[in-house]
Amino acid sequence: EPEVTQTPSHQVTQMGQEVILRCVPISNHLYFYWYRQILGQKVEFLVSFYNNEISEKSEIFDDQFSVERPDGSNFTLKIRSTKLEDSAMYFCASRGGRGETQYFGPGTRLLVL
Amino acid sequence: GIQVEQSPPDLILQEGANSTLRCNFSDSVNNLQWFHQNPWGQLINLFYIPSGTKQNGRLSATTVATERYSLLYISSSQTTDSGVYFCAVDGDYGNNRLAFGKGNQVVVIP
Q1: Among A18, A49, B49, B62, which is least packed, fewest CB within 10 Å?
Q2: Rounded-to-integer distance, Cα A4 and Cα A109, Å
Q3: What is the rounded distance in angstroms from the CA atom of residue A21 to the CA atom of residue A5?
Q4: Contact A3, A103 (CB under 8 A)
Q5: Nearest to A43 among B30, B86, B96 (CB)
Q6: Residue B29 in contact with residue B65, Cβ under 8 Å?
Q7: What was the pLDDT predicted at A1?
Q8: What is the DSSP letter of A101?
């Protein structure tokens, strides 16, 4: 069964450093998402991406965050200057069409020291 | 935005017992999904169920969209059912982003 993959599975970084989280969505999917989950809390929406542009973003997704689909298969989330509060599990998800199931990747656990 | 409430927040079960988890949502939805978050943090899709009833092995789910709730049933629970169960809904947003509840923490003891 096709699946969403994410790399790395874990990342530790120093505050102020840039990180790039990578995702490979399911190949024929059209809608892409990033979510995050701070330890012990619920999953929160960050951003959605469709037709090579951001279609919606939450208030969490400030100027420190950016997304890109550089080559038609990868979907990346960049955090320019990490803060301690960016420590969380980051999930990528993709969906084929409107109203269909969203499939989630296994997540990247980011720890900012 | 749409609000999602899950109950009970915590549940301890004896192995073999049955349980029901509930998800209430505040507005009409296009989609509702149930996930199981395993101890490694992965979100496992259980059901895509905007309405009606589905069954998958010992798990089943029912969504009554007109009354804005969904139920997840776990029968003959096993220790591997332990974890957090999340309900997530997709309201009438243009891009169908999911709004998650806070989850049901389930512990099954042998």
Answers
A1: A18
A2: 16
A3: 11
A4: yes
A5: B86
A6: yes
A7: 75
A8: P
Quick: pLDDT tens for A65-101.
999 998 878 999 999 999 999 999 999 999 998 778 8
Q: Is B47 exposed, middle or buried (0-12, 13-18, 19+ CB in 10 A)?
A: buried
Q: Which two tokens stand for residue A71?
A: 């080559």
Pairing assessment for the beta strands A19-24 and A75-79 based on DSSP bridges: antiparallel
CB B85 within 8 Å of CB B35: yes
Which residues fall within 8 angstroms of residue A81, CB to CB, at 6 or more apart? A16, A17, A18, A64
Are B83 and B37 in contact by the 8 Å Cβ rule? The answer is yes
Q: What is the mean pLDDT of each run of 10 residues along chain B (110 residues)?
A: 94 97 92 93 94 96 96 97 95 77 96
Tokens 């017992």 sit on residue: B17
Q: How far is CA A74 from its chain centroid?
A: 11
The A residues from 38 to 57 touching B (CB cutoff 8 Å) are 41-45, 48, 50, 55-56
71-90 in chain A: CB under 8 A from chain B: 89
By CA distance, what is A36's nearest residue in B? B100
